[in-house]
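Practice record 12: protein with KG4.
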Amino acid sequence: MIPQVLLGIETSCDDTAAAVIIDGKLASSVISSQLEHVEFGGVVPEIASRAHERLLVSVVETALRDANVSKGDLSGLTVTSGPGLIGSLMVGVSFTKALSVGLGIPFLGVNHLEGHIASLYLSEDLSDPTPPYPHLCLIVSGGHTQLMKVEGPGKYAIMGSTRDDAAGEAFDKVGKILGLPYPAGPKIDALAKTGNKTFHSFPRTRLKGYDTSFSGIKTSMLYFLNALEEVERNELIANSLPDLCASFQEAVVDMLISPIKKAVRETGIRHIGLVGGVSANTRLREKLAELMNSMGGQMYVPDFRFCMDNAAMIAMAGYQRMQVGQASDLSLTADPSMKLQ
Ligand code: KG4
Ligand code: ZN
């Protein structure tokens, strides 16, 4: 029997999340973001796995209650089995396997990136437009920057990837240099709104094909600031933080947009999805929408609450695969460097 009441679980990094999908429609989504990491300026893996263990049961109970279902109503389970932090993934995978045995229902391990791609199909309203197949999809988060060609659920080709830092990582690292708390992406986005994007021209790294690179821009910000005396530097940050943020953000957005333009031109595919934490970025959405308008295409973005890590996207990716009879068995293990296949 095809499972229709699905519980999704996501514990790959520092968000403990659970969601319920009923007949392909989102019924609940609960995310508990771990604030324990803020004082360290990044995610501490050991703290993350301990926090998942402490939080997961109550997050799952809340997701079931919000969806008005009980454990006995569930007909399938899906869980992120990679990529991510090994300890964090293991909490979700072990929990899911135990629950599956206890309830006697099937379960499926899902790739976190496939979850982000599936976030475009998440909605409480099934009439919202979703991208047709094939479409292009830019996955852009704290851990990944990949341009994909998506032929169907679970059918992908990687067209290009970052050679070094992910775009979200660049936002977070540059934010740290500027004295902003982790994760800095949303703060840089907000500050950039009142800033001058031509205040400083950061170099744009362009590579052959569809690959990207973001380590240069971080170094470039560092050199730009270190060339100043300490007093001058502090003054610049105090007086021109929005301008620095806007100039940096504009360069990152340009570097993300440029391979998409090439891909649309070369593949003729005019539907593009933008997913992952950085897809919440206002300027990236604005510039990609402009580009697609000018090329006669269409951009698709998830609801803001499904850009950052969540379990609804994991439930949706699992739902799509379970519809065609896929399931994992108890030999499933957490795979921190799991590839899309
Ligand atoms: O997808 P996600 O929640 O986790 C990963 O799988 O990495 O993405 C988190 C990343 C962080 O690097 C965060 O700074 C970035 O997404 N981010 C943003 C924005 N919102 C989140 N970056 C730029 N602009 C935003 N509005
Ligand atoms: Zn993610």
